[in-house]
Amino acid sequence: MGFKEYYRKDLTQTHNFSLNPETLAYLRQIQKPVHIIITLQKNANSDVAKKYYNDIGAILREYQYATHKNGENQFTIEYVNVFQQHNRAEELAKLYNVRGDTAILVICGEKYREILGVDLYDAKTSHFKGEQAFTSAILDVTANEKKKIYCIQGHGELNPDSSDPIQGFSAAMMILQHKNIAVEGLDLAKSVNVPDDANLLIVASPQVPFLKQEEEKLRRYLSERNGRLLVFLAVEKEHGLDDLFYDWAIRADNVTIFDDSSDYISSSGDFIIKRCEKHPITQSLIDLQIQLLMGFSRPVKVDRGAGFDEQRKVVPLLYTSESSWSQKMTKAKGNKEKIVRGGQSIAVCAERNAVSQLGIKIAGGRLIVFGNADFVTNSRLGVLGNSFLFQNAVNWCLDCDNLLNIPPRPTHNYQLSLTRKDFMWLSINILIVPCAVAMVGLLIMILRKSN
Fold first, then answer.
1. Does domain 148-399 have CATH number 3.40.50?
2. What is the pLDDT of residues 213-230, one digit of tens each?
3. What is the pTM of this model?
């Protein structure tokens, strides 16, 4: 009876062990069982790993309590010791491509999502963000519809099926599939319109310009259907999307950015990008002070001549160093014509608010344009900052940044200092209540048996 029906009350001053009301509202709507698999070890040698284990265990117990309905629990937790449970560890590796003793999986049916260590703590304050991470993952895997992304083809874009380090885009596709996102190719020249189930379109390094009718299809998708478009432009290649970008107050000039400062050039010759504007897409890079590695880029900036639109918000995301400059290669003469010197924007995001029939503002279309495409190729996506940036851009386009409004929780370590006399007094008082309850229970059992 006590196992099936019980009550918990958080008596802490800061309610560290209570779920946010928004999380509780989401959990009440979930009708599917959710299974959590954790390979973190309780007896880990690292103090950090032990802290992870304790903080995660505490918050997950609250999820179990919140989803406890009619004596049944829709939220189950499985701790796997990969060093002892070899068969189970191999099964997890085969099903979810997860290895090692740091995995946290949220599973519902065939859908799953992995939570990373960086998702759990705020880099600056060390506050625990476990509730935000777990609730977001639960909403993702329990969603009725699977998100779908189309990669535009037909213009020499990066190949999503190729493992080639320079022209391949398969590493990015693996990241998307790991997030339970379906990915397909789309040739706009052969399609009447963008498919109805498209949550996001990706244009990765087009080598030839888009046709006008193709650009118009993208324009209608963004404006009429509040679509989402993520564009990675190649350097010194005409893209044919100038009119579309202008409508969103974005300008992508066909020039190349150079830099000769040793502080911004890696040993491999890549450009180091350190300057980021504050935005949900770049916030984790700023908090963790993670740098990006890119090849040559083209400027992508806010187009001030596009006119004012109160429904439109345009934000530059990344900047090159102050020692950089942009110039255009004049092929006929083979010389370089200097255009602009100084730090320049190489990525811009834009969004519009739409108005419903009731006059309520809702999220409209979203567009991100990067003046670089090689940072998402197989050879460079392995760089931590590059991978973060790609995933954050996708999350923002898919509205994953707006799913939750759950603040991080401060974590505290308390130490209780008692004298021997105080300790004895506390021990006696702690034992009296449970012993008294046990004695009453034993007496009742004896009286029932005697009758």
1. yes
2. 999 999 999 999 999 999
3. 0.69
